[in-house]
């Protein structure tokens, strides 16, 4: 039987519990999941690419172990469909939080299908606890001194707080 390989791509700046939910659910559907961390210099990321890749690897490792799925985390630049071809993914996973997400993702899926009809886009609905979690909002809350501990995993929480608040004086 052919390996079922999929791609879940994003900026992951920072990776959230919502992202991890999609990764965990996607890992149960696939033999191999590639997590593509987009360069995304235009968005002015909080974390440099190398650190985002490192955080995603660290946070996704326990999921790979639990699911028995090989998870690879790789940086990429350019079209998601091109990267899916490069890594041999027959499926692009996308998480949906809201109707607004659906409108955008539906258009992207249609464009990707035109670019490569052999790659399917599969939408996973956000779990009810993560429907409102967005990296952009997590960063904003952290910068304003709010509690983001329920939105991100522990290592990402520590790194995000270090990044937005700077080194704490003891």
Automatic annotation (TrEMBL):
This enzyme's EC code(s): 2.7.7.3
Keyword hit for Endoplasmic reticulum: no
Site positions for Transition state stabilizer: 19
GO molecular function, one term: ATP binding
Reaction(s) catalysed (UniProt annotation): (R)-4'-phosphopantetheine + ATP + H(+) = 3'-dephospho-CoA + diphosphate
Biological or metabolic pathway of the protein: Cofactor biosynthesis; coenzyme A biosynthesis; CoA from (R)-pantothenate: step 4/5
Keywords associated with the record: ATP-binding, Coenzyme A biosynthesis, Cytoplasm, Magnesium, Nucleotide-binding, Nucleotidyltransferase, Transferase
GO biological process, one term: coenzyme A biosynthetic process
Residues noted as binding substrate in the record, renumbered to the chain: 11, 43, 80, 94
Keyword Cytoplasm: yes
Cytidyltransferase-like domain: residues covered: 7-140
Assembly and oligomerization: Homohexamer.
Family the UniProt entry places it in: Belongs to the bacterial CoaD family.
Protein name according to UniProt: Phosphopantetheine adenylyltransferase
Source organism per UniProt: uncultured Craurococcus sp
């Amino acid at each position: 039987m052919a390996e079922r390989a999929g791609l879940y791509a994003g900026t992951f700046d920072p990776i959230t519990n919502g992202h991890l939910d999609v990764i965990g659910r996607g890992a149960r559907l696939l033999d191999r999941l590639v997590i593509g961390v987009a360069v995304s210099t235009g968005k002015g990321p909080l974390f440099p690419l190398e650190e985002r890749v490192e955080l995603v690897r660290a946070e996704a490792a326990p999921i790979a172990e639990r699911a028995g799925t090989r998870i690879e985390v790789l940086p990429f630049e350019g079209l998601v469909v091109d990267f899916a071809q490069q890594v041999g993914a027959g499926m692009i996973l996308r998480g949906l939080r809201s109707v607004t997400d659906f409108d955008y993702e539906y258009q992207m899926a249609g464009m990707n299908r035109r670019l490569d009809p052999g790659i399917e886009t599969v939408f996973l609905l956000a779990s009810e606890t993560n429907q409102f979690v967005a990296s952009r909002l997590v960063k904003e809350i952290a910068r304003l001194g709010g509690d983001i501990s329920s939105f991100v995993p522990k290592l990402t929480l520590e790194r995000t707080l270090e990044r937005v608040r700077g080194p704490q004086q003891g």
